[in-house]
Write a structure and sequence with these properties.
Strand content: under 5%
Distance between the termini: 84 Å
Largest sheet: none
Shape: elongated
Structural class: mainly alpha
Number of strands: 0
Radius of gyration: 36 Å
Length: 441
């Protein structure tokens, strides 16, 4: 039975002639035959070698399945001769040599015809940044002259996070092809590069422009990215402030607030405060939304004009933002405070000037705080409503029987308009445990 050569994995065996001879327990005759034939081609300077044979030989050598007692250095010389002198489909060959960095380097050393297809194939198989940088060094002059495949190269480097390769391209004065590439580089720097300013400055030197909408586009990229989370945005404040300070001012608070799930609350606060301190003018709607986030604008002079608006004052009070303003309590503030838990002192203080209404009692029942419920119900003679009962019940850790009763109550009083068959209380099975001796009675 014909046996194929065994793949070798142990590099120590490859470097030890005796061990490698012993290890070749497959078809040694096949190893000898194909090697001797290739040696013959090499020694006789033969160039009429069939492409099929070349591909078979390269595939065997590069996958470490040839008998390595037959002189690895000789194989490298053979491969160098093939790549340097013989005309065959070298791009297709890339797929066969990807497992052998030495032969890969030989390939890029002698291949002079650069094209989009060639660059695409190189990037498709490259998993080693150091080897890829050697490829760049070999072709950098052609790349500079032709600008071929710059989008492919930059997108590959950005995707692979090859920061050293990016550095090499920038140091080689390769122009940033377009604003989309520049934005992607910035987004990667948000996460992976501590000395981001060095890379950004190199990008600008190489033709990248910080435009008015750059920051907005970067925010959009961050929002779409599945790899960016609040714990890895190490440069978000530094980069946003750098871009804003260098002219990317076409931005709004709402663009920034869309990143609330991507960056830390503290970073969100630092960024908007930096914008405001450096010339950004907040609108009334933006400041209202900022207050709803619970963020304080440190430069009070910038937002003082909004603090006389009653609605905004209510939001500031509710979110406990420490601004030097006097509050006049109203029913909206009281209703909001009644929703909160363990809030008796604040509510007592507000009740000195504002009388509660039915909604206040209903909100108080959400947390079922007995002291507050009693004060509003008894001291102000406000009656309980169906909503009071529902608020108490729905925030109680009820059992299945209570769930059953609550659903019946809602249906009877028309309080469950979206009821469907699955929610129908008649479909809920109630198991009643009568005890082990129930039948004895």
């Amino acid at each position: 039975m014909k046996v194929c050569p065994t793949r070798l994995h142990n590099t120590n065996i490859l470097n030890d002639t005796l061990k490698s001879v012993d290890y070749c327990d497959a078809n040694h005759e096949y190893c000898s035959y194909i090697t001797e034939l290739m040696n013959k081609y090499f020694e006789e300077k033969e160039i009429n070698i069939s492409e099929n044979f070349i591909n078979r030989y390269l595939q065997i050598v590069c996958n470490n399945i040839l008998c390595w007692s037959l002189n690895y250095d000789k194989h490298l010389k053979n491969c160098e001769y093939i790549i340097k002198n013989i005309n065959f489909d070298k791009i297709n060959t890339l797929k066969k040599i990807e497992n052998n960095p030495e032969i890969y380097e030989l390939y890029i050393k002698y291949e002079k015809n650069i094209s989009i297809e060639f660059i695409t194939n190189i990037t498709n198989i490259s998993n080693n940044q150091d080897v890829f940088i050697k490829f760049l060094k070999n072709y950098i002059e052609n790349i500079i002259k032709s600008d071929i495949g710059l989008d492919v190269l930059f997108n590959f480097i950005i995707t692979k996070q090859y920061i050293n390769a990016l550095d090499f391209l920038l140091d080689s004065k390769i122009k940033i092809p377009n604003s989309d590439i520049f934005n992607k580089i910035i987004v990667k720097l948000v996460v992976f590069q501590n000395d981001f300013d060095v890379i950004l400055k190199k990008c600008i030197t190489n033709g990248a422009n910080i435009e008015k909408n750059t920051l907005k586009n970067v925010f959009n990229e961050i929002q779409k990215s599945q790899y960016i989370h609040s714990y890895n945005c190490i440069n978000i404040f530094k980069i946003t402030s750098f871009l804003f300070d260098n002219g990317s001012t076409d931005i709004s608070w709402f663009d920034l607030s869309n990143l609330k799930d991507k960056i830390l609350f503290s970073e969100l606060s630092k960024i908007i405060n930096h914008f405001v301190d450096n010339g950004y003018n907040l609108t009334q709607d933006e400041f209202k939304n900022i207050c709803e986030f619970g963020i304080k604008i440190n430069n009070f002079n910038k937002i003082n004009k909004f603090c006389s608006i009653e609605e905004i004052k209510n939001i500031i009070y509710i979110n406990k933002i420490n601004y030097p303003i006097k509050f006049t309590f109203n029913i909206d503030i009281l209703r909001s405070e009644c929703k909160k838990n363990n809030n008796l002192p604040n509510i007592k203080n507000i009740l000195k000037t504002i009388a509660p209404d039915t909604e206040c009692l209903e909100n108080t029942c959400i947390n079922s705080n007995p002291a507050i419920v009693k004060i509003i119900h008894e001291n102000y003679n406000i009656k309980f409503t169906d909503k009071c009962i529902l608020n108490c019940a729905e925030n109680f850790r009820y059992n299945r029987l209570f769930d059953y009763v609550l659903k019946l109550y809602k249906d009877k009083n028309g309080l469950n308009p979206n009821n469907n068959e699955d929610d129908n209380p008649d479909n809920i099975m109630i198991e009643i445990d009568n005890g082990e001796d129930a039948d004895d009675d």
